[in-house]
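User: Hey, quick favor. My workstation is busy. Could you predict this chain's structure for me?
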Amino acid sequence: MEYTVKELAELSGITSRTVRYYDEIDLLKPARTNSSGYRIYGLEEVDRLQQILFYRELDVDLDSIRKIINSPSFDEVNALKEHREKLFEKKEQLELLIVNLDRTITSKERGIIMNDQEKFEGFKKRLVEDNEKKYGKEIREKYGDEAVEKSNKKIKDMIQEEYAEVTEIEKKLMEILKAALETGDPAGELAQKAADLHRQWISFYWDSYNKQAHAGVAQMYVADDRFKAYYDKEQLGTAEFLRDAILVYTGRKNQ
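Assistant: No problem, here it is.
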C-alpha cells in the first residue's frame, strides 16, 4: 500500500500538517514524490511513523526520536519490545491512578474516610518512577542501591502534610535562589538561606543527612547536563551558583 500525506494522516490519527512537518525536520521522509508533486509513503514509512508515535506516547522529544531512529545501531524489533515494556509501566501507573480516583469518588459519595497515604499513593509512585527513569542509573552508581531504595520508601510513605511541605520548600527554594543569584555572592545571606532550604528539601528524600553527600549532589548538578538544564532553565549559571552556595554551606568550598 502507498499513501498520500492526507491518507497517512487519516491512517495514523495525526494531522496532515504533522506529517509534513516530520518531513521538514528529516524525521519521516516520503518514499517518493509523484508526478503531481504529492508526497508518497510506503510500508517502510508507515512502520517508521509507528515507531515515532510510540516514542511520542512515551513523551520523548522529536529531536531525540530523530537521533534514535536515524542511528546506524537502531534495531526496530528491540525498539518495539522496549515500547511494550514502557507502555506496560505507563498502563500500571494509569491503573493505579484510576483506582486512587475511584476510591476518592467513593469516599466522597459514601462518607468513607481515606487515609492520607491512600490519597497520594498514585502520585508518589509516579514521582519515584520518574526519578528512576531520569536519574536512577547515576544515583545508584554514586550512592548504592540500598540508599536509593530507602529514599524511594520515604517518598512512598509520605503523608499528605509531608508531601505538601516538601513541595512548598522546593517552591520557596527556587524563589530564594533566583533572588540570591542576582547578588552574585554564593556566601551571602540569601544564598546560604537557599542552601539551607535545599538541605531541608533533600532531607525529605534521604534516609539521613550528611554534608559530604550534600556537597556531592551539588557537584552533580553541574557535572550532569540534565540537572544543570533543570536549574538553568530560567537563568544560566543557576546550577553553578547553587553548587557554590552549598559548598560554602557544607564547609567544602576550598576542598
